[in-house]
Amino acid sequence: MDWVPIVFITFKVLVFGTCMFYAIKWHHDQGKKAKEEASKRQGLTEQTQEASE
What we know:
Blueprint: H1 3-52
């Protein structure tokens, strides 16, 4: 029965490690997505200003 804590701790580390990886990836992707949307809006703003001139 000495192996039970080793297995549970190993499983816990794997689960937390996986969750941390996907949390960081999700936040990175959200930042990239927001940056792309901001650049698209900036491009649309510039196009409308050029069209009005």
